[in-house]
Design brief:
This protein is an alpha/beta fold. The protein has a single domain, classed as Rossmann fold. The protein is built from eight helices and seven strands, in the order βαβαβαβαβαβαβαα. It has a seven-stranded parallel beta sheet, sandwiched between helices. Helix 6 links the parallel strand 6 and strand 7. 38% of the residues are buried. It binds NADP nicotinamide-adenine-dinucleotide phosphate. NADP nicotinamide-adenine-dinucleotide phosphate (NAP) binds next to helix 1.
Protein backbone atom coordinates (compact mmCIF):
# COMPACT_ATOMS: atom_id res chain seq x y z
CA UNK A 1 0.00 0.00 0.00
CA UNK A 2 1.42 3.39 -0.94
CA UNK A 3 1.92 6.09 1.71
CA UNK A 4 -0.93 8.46 2.53
CA UNK A 5 -0.54 11.76 0.66
CA UNK A 6 -2.10 14.57 2.64
CA UNK A 7 -1.66 17.49 0.23
CA UNK A 8 -5.01 19.24 -0.44
CA UNK A 9 -6.85 16.38 1.29
CA UNK A 10 -9.31 16.79 4.19
CA UNK A 11 -8.18 15.39 7.54
CA UNK A 12 -10.22 15.41 10.76
CA UNK A 13 -8.24 16.02 13.98
CA UNK A 14 -10.12 15.61 17.27
CA UNK A 15 -8.72 17.32 20.35
CA UNK A 16 -7.15 19.99 18.14
CA UNK A 17 -7.49 22.82 20.66
CA UNK A 18 -4.34 21.86 22.59
CA UNK A 19 -1.43 19.47 23.01
CA UNK A 20 -0.81 16.63 20.60
CA UNK A 21 -3.88 17.31 18.43
CA UNK A 22 -3.06 20.98 17.98
CA UNK A 23 0.54 20.17 17.09
CA UNK A 24 -0.41 17.41 14.65
CA UNK A 25 -2.82 19.84 12.98
CA UNK A 26 -0.01 22.42 12.66
CA UNK A 27 2.43 19.89 11.18
CA UNK A 28 -0.20 18.53 8.76
CA UNK A 29 -0.89 22.07 7.55
CA UNK A 30 2.66 23.44 7.37
CA UNK A 31 4.56 20.34 6.32
CA UNK A 32 1.95 18.41 4.33
CA UNK A 33 -0.44 21.16 3.09
CA UNK A 34 -3.46 19.21 4.36
CA UNK A 35 -6.89 20.82 4.71
CA UNK A 36 -8.19 20.31 8.22
CA UNK A 37 -11.38 19.78 10.17
CA UNK A 38 -10.54 20.76 13.75
CA UNK A 39 -12.73 19.39 16.53
CA UNK A 40 -12.83 20.11 20.29
CA UNK A 41 -15.07 21.94 22.77
CA UNK A 42 -13.11 25.23 22.97
CA UNK A 43 -14.33 26.94 19.82
CA UNK A 44 -12.27 30.11 20.28
CA UNK A 45 -9.01 28.13 20.41
CA UNK A 46 -10.01 26.25 17.24
CA UNK A 47 -10.93 29.53 15.50
CA UNK A 48 -7.53 31.00 16.45
CA UNK A 49 -5.75 27.97 15.01
CA UNK A 50 -7.91 28.07 11.87
CA UNK A 51 -7.01 31.74 11.30
CA UNK A 52 -3.30 31.00 11.78
CA UNK A 53 -3.24 27.96 9.47
CA UNK A 54 -5.30 29.59 6.72
CA UNK A 55 -3.12 32.69 6.77
CA UNK A 56 0.34 31.18 7.26
CA UNK A 57 0.07 27.69 5.74
CA UNK A 58 -2.51 28.64 3.07
CA UNK A 59 -4.72 25.61 3.71
CA UNK A 60 -8.51 25.41 4.18
CA UNK A 61 -9.76 24.76 7.70
CA UNK A 62 -13.21 23.98 9.16
CA UNK A 63 -14.03 24.08 12.84
CA UNK A 64 -16.47 21.83 14.70
CA UNK A 65 -17.18 22.58 18.32
CA UNK A 66 -18.47 19.40 19.93
CA UNK A 67 -18.42 17.66 23.29
CA UNK A 68 -17.34 14.08 22.67
CA UNK A 69 -18.82 13.06 26.02
CA UNK A 70 -22.22 13.74 24.48
CA UNK A 71 -23.39 11.18 21.90
CA UNK A 72 -25.68 13.67 20.13
CA UNK A 73 -22.71 15.98 19.62
CA UNK A 74 -20.65 13.05 18.37
CA UNK A 75 -23.27 12.10 15.78
CA UNK A 76 -23.75 15.72 14.68
CA UNK A 77 -19.97 16.06 14.25
CA UNK A 78 -19.70 12.85 12.18
CA UNK A 79 -22.55 13.99 9.90
CA UNK A 80 -20.74 17.28 9.38
CA UNK A 81 -17.40 15.56 8.70
CA UNK A 82 -18.86 13.16 6.13
CA UNK A 83 -21.36 15.48 4.49
CA UNK A 84 -19.46 16.30 1.29
CA UNK A 85 -17.86 12.85 0.91
CA UNK A 86 -14.34 14.30 0.72
CA UNK A 87 -12.81 12.98 3.94
CA UNK A 88 -9.36 11.43 3.39
CA UNK A 89 -8.19 10.81 6.94
CA UNK A 90 -8.96 11.18 10.63
CA UNK A 91 -6.82 11.47 13.73
CA UNK A 92 -8.91 10.44 16.74
CA UNK A 93 -6.80 12.04 19.42
CA UNK A 94 -9.08 13.74 21.98
CA UNK A 95 -8.70 12.19 25.40
CA UNK A 96 -8.71 12.83 29.14
CA UNK A 97 -6.96 11.21 32.07
CA UNK A 98 -7.24 10.89 35.85
CA UNK A 99 -4.14 10.54 38.00
CA UNK A 100 -4.84 9.44 41.57
CA UNK A 101 -6.26 6.59 43.62
CA UNK A 102 -8.97 4.82 41.65
CA UNK A 103 -11.09 4.71 44.84
CA UNK A 104 -11.21 8.52 44.72
CA UNK A 105 -12.28 8.80 41.07
CA UNK A 106 -15.90 10.05 41.08
CA UNK A 107 -18.23 7.83 39.06
CA UNK A 108 -19.33 10.74 36.83
CA UNK A 109 -15.74 11.49 35.98
CA UNK A 110 -15.08 7.84 35.11
CA UNK A 111 -18.13 7.75 32.84
CA UNK A 112 -16.99 10.96 31.18
CA UNK A 113 -13.57 9.45 30.51
CA UNK A 114 -15.18 6.32 29.09
CA UNK A 115 -17.40 8.41 26.78
CA UNK A 116 -14.49 10.49 25.46
CA UNK A 117 -11.67 7.93 25.35
CA UNK A 118 -13.69 4.89 24.26
CA UNK A 119 -17.33 5.36 23.26
CA UNK A 120 -16.89 8.40 21.01
CA UNK A 121 -13.84 6.79 19.38
CA UNK A 122 -15.76 3.61 18.54
CA UNK A 123 -18.78 5.61 17.37
CA UNK A 124 -16.67 7.77 15.02
CA UNK A 125 -14.55 4.84 13.84
CA UNK A 126 -17.67 2.80 12.97
CA UNK A 127 -19.06 5.52 10.73
CA UNK A 128 -15.73 6.38 9.10
CA UNK A 129 -14.80 2.76 8.43
CA UNK A 130 -18.23 2.26 6.87
CA UNK A 131 -17.62 5.33 4.68
CA UNK A 132 -14.26 4.03 3.41
CA UNK A 133 -15.52 0.46 2.98
CA UNK A 134 -18.58 1.60 1.03
CA UNK A 135 -16.85 4.13 -1.21
CA UNK A 136 -13.58 2.24 -1.65
CA UNK A 137 -11.85 5.63 -1.27
CA UNK A 138 -8.18 5.95 -0.33
CA UNK A 139 -7.51 7.10 3.24
CA UNK A 140 -6.78 6.18 6.82
CA UNK A 141 -7.56 6.63 10.49
CA UNK A 142 -5.02 7.16 13.28
CA UNK A 143 -6.20 6.23 16.76
CA UNK A 144 -4.18 7.75 19.60
CA UNK A 145 -3.74 5.22 22.40
CA UNK A 146 -0.85 5.42 24.90
CA UNK A 147 2.07 3.45 26.33
CA UNK A 148 -0.28 3.10 29.33
CA UNK A 149 -2.05 0.49 27.18
CA UNK A 150 1.14 -1.59 27.01
CA UNK A 151 2.75 -0.86 30.40
CA UNK A 152 -0.32 -0.62 32.67
CA UNK A 153 -0.03 2.36 35.01
CA UNK A 154 -1.42 2.03 38.54
CA UNK A 155 -2.93 5.30 39.82
CA UNK A 156 -4.09 5.83 36.23
CA UNK A 157 -5.93 2.51 36.21
CA UNK A 158 -9.12 3.58 34.46
CA UNK A 159 -7.18 5.64 31.92
CA UNK A 160 -4.84 2.68 31.21
CA UNK A 161 -7.92 0.52 30.68
CA UNK A 162 -9.44 2.93 28.16
CA UNK A 163 -6.19 3.11 26.21
CA UNK A 164 -5.77 -0.69 26.26
CA UNK A 165 -9.26 -0.94 24.79
CA UNK A 166 -8.27 1.37 21.92
CA UNK A 167 -5.11 -0.63 21.22
CA UNK A 168 -6.95 -3.96 21.08
CA UNK A 169 -9.93 -2.52 19.21
CA UNK A 170 -7.84 -0.91 16.48
CA UNK A 171 -5.36 -3.70 15.96
CA UNK A 172 -8.09 -6.32 15.67
CA UNK A 173 -10.54 -4.25 13.61
CA UNK A 174 -7.74 -3.57 11.11
CA UNK A 175 -7.98 -7.23 10.08
CA UNK A 176 -11.67 -6.91 9.21
CA UNK A 177 -11.12 -4.09 6.71
CA UNK A 178 -11.68 -5.05 3.07
CA UNK A 179 -10.80 -1.78 1.30
CA UNK A 180 -7.13 -2.26 0.27
CA UNK A 181 -6.67 1.53 -0.01
CA UNK A 182 -7.68 2.21 3.60
CA UNK A 183 -5.50 1.80 6.71
CA UNK A 184 -6.14 1.82 10.44
CA UNK A 185 -3.18 2.82 12.62
CA UNK A 186 -2.83 2.82 16.38
CA UNK A 187 -0.20 5.05 18.00
CA UNK A 188 1.02 4.56 21.57
CA UNK A 189 3.03 7.59 22.71
CA UNK A 190 4.71 7.69 26.12
CA UNK A 191 4.47 10.81 28.31
CA UNK A 192 4.20 14.10 26.40
CA UNK A 193 4.50 17.67 27.70
CA UNK A 194 0.93 18.97 27.12
CA UNK A 195 -1.98 20.42 29.13
CA UNK A 196 -2.74 16.85 30.23
CA UNK A 197 0.56 16.56 32.11
CA UNK A 198 1.00 20.24 32.97
CA UNK A 199 -0.45 19.96 36.49
CA UNK A 200 1.87 19.80 39.49
CA UNK A 201 0.76 16.21 40.11
CA UNK A 202 2.97 15.22 37.21
CA UNK A 203 5.99 17.23 38.40
CA UNK A 204 7.89 14.16 39.62
CA UNK A 205 7.41 12.50 36.21
CA UNK A 206 8.29 15.53 34.10
CA UNK A 207 11.74 14.27 33.06
CA UNK A 208 9.98 11.44 31.17
CA UNK A 209 7.91 13.75 28.98
CA UNK A 210 8.85 14.27 25.34
CA UNK A 211 8.24 17.60 23.59
CA UNK A 212 4.88 17.71 21.87
CA UNK A 213 6.48 18.47 18.47
CA UNK A 214 8.38 15.19 18.59
CA UNK A 215 5.29 13.18 19.60
CA UNK A 216 3.28 14.79 16.80
CA UNK A 217 5.97 14.04 14.23
CA UNK A 218 6.03 10.37 15.31
CA UNK A 219 2.25 10.11 15.10
CA UNK A 220 2.09 11.61 11.62
CA UNK A 221 4.94 9.34 10.49
CA UNK A 222 2.99 6.28 11.68
CA UNK A 223 -0.23 7.52 10.06
CA UNK A 224 1.39 8.42 6.74
CA UNK A 225 3.28 5.14 6.52
CA UNK A 226 0.14 3.16 7.42
CA UNK A 227 1.78 1.35 10.37
CA UNK A 228 -0.72 -0.91 12.11
CA UNK A 229 0.83 -0.29 15.56
CA UNK A 230 3.47 2.36 16.20
CA UNK A 231 5.43 2.48 19.47
CA UNK A 232 7.73 5.53 19.35
CA UNK A 233 11.27 5.71 20.73
CA UNK A 234 13.85 3.19 21.93
CA UNK A 235 12.78 3.13 25.60
CA UNK A 236 9.10 2.58 24.79
CA UNK A 237 10.01 -0.17 22.33
CA UNK A 238 12.22 -1.80 25.01
CA UNK A 239 9.41 -1.51 27.56
CA UNK A 240 7.09 -3.26 25.16
CA UNK A 241 9.60 -6.08 24.55
CA UNK A 242 10.20 -6.51 28.30
CA UNK A 243 6.45 -6.61 28.87
CA UNK A 244 6.37 -9.71 26.66
CA UNK A 245 9.44 -11.31 28.26
CA UNK A 246 9.04 -10.62 31.99
CA UNK A 247 6.04 -11.47 34.16
CA UNK A 248 3.56 -8.56 33.80
CA UNK A 249 3.35 -8.30 37.60
CA UNK A 250 7.00 -7.27 37.95
CA UNK A 251 6.76 -4.39 35.48
CA UNK A 252 3.38 -3.21 36.76
CA UNK A 253 4.75 -3.21 40.34
CA UNK A 254 7.70 -1.09 39.18
CA UNK A 255 5.33 1.35 37.43
CA UNK A 256 3.18 1.41 40.56
CA UNK A 257 6.18 2.44 42.69
CA UNK A 258 7.08 5.32 40.36
CA UNK A 259 3.54 6.70 40.09
CA UNK A 260 2.75 6.23 43.80
CA UNK A 261 5.87 8.20 44.71
CA UNK A 262 4.80 11.03 42.38
CA UNK A 263 1.29 10.97 43.87
CA UNK A 264 2.55 11.05 47.47
CA UNK A 265 4.91 13.91 46.67
CA UNK A 266 2.09 16.00 45.19
CA UNK A 267 -0.13 15.18 48.19
CA UNK A 268 2.62 16.16 50.59
CA UNK A 269 2.72 19.53 48.85
CA UNK A 270 -1.08 19.59 49.11
CA UNK A 271 -1.41 19.95 45.35
CA UNK A 272 -4.92 19.63 43.94
CA UNK A 273 -5.47 17.30 40.91
N1 LIG B 1 0.12 13.84 27.42
C1 LIG B 1 0.55 12.60 27.54
O1 LIG B 1 1.47 12.29 28.33
C2 LIG B 1 -0.03 11.50 26.68
C3 LIG B 1 0.64 10.28 26.61
C4 LIG B 1 0.11 9.27 25.83
C5 LIG B 1 -1.06 9.47 25.14
N2 LIG B 1 -1.71 10.66 25.23
C6 LIG B 1 -2.96 10.80 24.51
O2 LIG B 1 -2.83 11.85 23.57
C7 LIG B 1 -4.11 12.43 23.33
C8 LIG B 1 -4.01 13.95 23.41
O3 LIG B 1 -3.66 14.29 24.74
P1 LIG B 1 -2.85 15.61 25.10
O4 LIG B 1 -1.73 15.20 25.95
O5 LIG B 1 -2.62 16.41 23.89
O6 LIG B 1 -3.93 16.31 26.05
P2 LIG B 1 -4.49 17.80 26.11
O7 LIG B 1 -3.46 18.80 25.80
O8 LIG B 1 -5.21 17.86 27.41
O9 LIG B 1 -5.55 17.81 24.91
C9 LIG B 1 -6.73 17.07 24.96
C10 LIG B 1 -7.61 17.48 23.81
O10 LIG B 1 -8.81 16.71 23.90
C11 LIG B 1 -9.92 17.59 23.82
N3 LIG B 1 -11.04 17.11 24.62
C12 LIG B 1 -11.04 16.79 25.93
N4 LIG B 1 -12.29 16.50 26.34
C13 LIG B 1 -13.09 16.65 25.25
C14 LIG B 1 -14.48 16.52 25.03
N5 LIG B 1 -15.32 16.20 26.01
N6 LIG B 1 -14.96 16.75 23.78
C15 LIG B 1 -14.13 17.13 22.77
N7 LIG B 1 -12.81 17.26 22.92
C16 LIG B 1 -12.30 17.03 24.15
C17 LIG B 1 -9.42 18.91 24.39
O11 LIG B 1 -10.18 19.99 23.84
P3 LIG B 1 -11.27 20.86 24.63
O12 LIG B 1 -10.84 20.93 26.06
O13 LIG B 1 -11.23 22.18 23.92
O14 LIG B 1 -12.55 20.14 24.39
C18 LIG B 1 -8.00 18.94 23.85
O15 LIG B 1 -7.99 19.49 22.56
C19 LIG B 1 -5.06 11.81 24.36
O16 LIG B 1 -5.82 10.80 23.76
C20 LIG B 1 -4.12 11.22 25.39
O17 LIG B 1 -4.69 10.14 26.07
C21 LIG B 1 -1.22 11.69 25.98
Amino acid sequence: MSKLQFKNKWILVTGASSGLGEEMARQLAFQHQANLILLARRKEKLEELKAELEKEAKVSVKVISADLANLEDVDRAIDEVLKNGQLYGAILNAGVTYFGRHSELPWDEFQNMLQINVISVVRITNRLVDFFETTGNEGGILLVSSMAAILPVPYQSAYSGTKAFILTFASTLAHEIKNPRFSLTVYTPGGIATEMTAGEKFSDLRSWLVPVGEAARDGIYAFRNRKSLYIPGFLNKMGSVLMNLLPKKIITRKMSGIYYKALLKSEALNIKP
